[in-house]
Amino acid sequence: MNGRTKLELMWIGKDQEPRLEPRILLEDPDLSYHADFRVSENDIFDNRLIFGDNLLALKALEQEFTGKIKCIYIDPPYNTGNAFEHYDDGIEHSLWLSLIQARLKIIHKLLSVDGSLWISIDDDESHYLKIVCDEIFGRNNFISSIIWQKKYSPSNDAKFFSDVHDYILVYAKNKMSFKLNLLPRTEEQDKRYKNPDNDPRGPWKPSDLSVKTPNPRDIYPITTPSGRIVMPPESRSWVVSKEKFEELVKDNRIWFGKDGNNVPSVKRFLNEVQEGVVPKTLWLRDEVGDNQEAKKEIKAFNKDDVFTTPKPERLIQRILQIATKEGDIVLDSFAGSGTTGAVAHKMGRHWIMIELGEHCHTHIIPRMKKVIDGTDQGGISKAVNWQGGGGFRYYRLAPSLLEKDKFGNWVISKEYNSTMLAEAMCKHKGFTYSPDDTFYWKQGKSTETDYIYTTTQLITREIADQIQEQMAEDETLLICCKAFTVNPQDYPQITFEKIPTSILKRCEFGRDDYSLSIAQIPNKEKVEQVDLFGEENGQ
């Protein structure tokens, strides 16, 4: 490092990254839901709702969606120390950082080169979270920290300050490629444009003709129509040269007031301004809603079980307006009550939601059914004229591919049939699962000529010879089987591997929960001290 110091956030267990098993996803058609007919040509039916541990689910998406997600919004547990009904929101600090770090690393892979990550967070962990994001995304890809007014009424029982805002951290996958969309102009903004002189070019508003950074060349007297001579304010100059000013006067673009006696200003016409507005970093509840508004939205589909701090649809709409366009893919891996999916659906975006809690079934599915049926007219529905349509597929994470038998040996899980096994091995070995209609041994491929075949039967010379005869000269094949009796050297185009031996050390099997609990914090013997900032001088 040439003697330079690297500043890094350190905590207990940071270097103990999970060895995740790349699970396959199993659709449950009974819980998938689609509209009975197309409402419009833009209806989207291939959205995904995944029930299961969100870290394993992110890993399951990695192969198919790496570099394809345009916008990822997450609202992770804030680690406030409070006992939330739907989340364990009191995870020990080091554990919370490990939880976030593991997920952010996969999220970074999933984002497209022009994609962005948006994270809701509060004061308890926001500063630590930013440092973790800096390490994974790079400080140069930090876009902004947005302040969202989440409530209006003060908390009179607050010990210190009454907390009325949250943050939204925004990171780009690549800042040079990320383009921020302008927000639509509001009626309030357009009302500022008037037409007191009946200019045929339409409404306009006056703009200051002077500029802060003075240019001596542009300091000159101007005579108003009333005969008054005016100069630019002290320490300022006019924004245009004298020649340009005279051109603007001839074009009726200078306003001297109704009596022709005011300091001149430039007329900015509504039909000439940019179509949108540059977003600000302060989002008030009047613009994007608050927790109270969000609770009312949830009551529309589950009045008996309302989240403590839900996010309003208008807040997610603002994010998707800035970060995406129609047809883009949006992901939320802490789906909660399903607000992200509901808003993305109404805005014509593809969506993927992941949720482990039972509210996946008690909140998200009922909500999305109402959205798809068009009966949900709350939230942003009226603003976007939502009429329903589209659908989603419901997936569960497959069980672990390997399990231990009564002797403690790892074996293929009895819950796997031949199709599931073939697809799972494709993921483990980096192949795309795409069974061939002609050749049974072409179950997946990594290139146009490299294939994989998985079977639980014994591979004999007779079987190997039969496959080799069907292979083209430039084709190669990986055979994954329980056992084989052939001499691999006799088949230069074929590689033979035994399962489960060939994958046993690649990842951690038999674990379904990475939500992390206090009991999983590493012993102090493993990490002798905890430094918030560790320094490495590299000398």
Automatic annotation (TrEMBL):
Swiss-Prot/TrEMBL GO biological process terms: methylation
UniProt keyword terms in alphabetical order: Methyltransferase, Restriction system, S-adenosyl-L-methionine, Transferase
Record EC number: 2.1.1.-
Residues annotated as domain DNA methylase N-4/N-6: 69-362
Gene Ontology MF: a single term: methyltransferase activity
InterPro entries: DNA_methylase_N4/N6, DNA_methylase_N6_adenine_CS, N4/N6-MTase_EcoPI_Mod-like, SAM-dependent_MTases_sf
Stored PROSITE patterns: N6_MTASE
Pfam families, A to Z: N6_N4_Mtase (PF01555)
Region (Disordered): 189-216
Origin: domain of life: Bacteria
Basic and acidic residues biased stretches: 189-202
Keyword Nucleotide-binding in annotation: no
Family classification: Belongs to the N(4)/N(6)-methyltransferase family.
Protein name, as recorded: Site-specific DNA-methyltransferase
Organism this protein belongs to: Effusibacillus consociatus
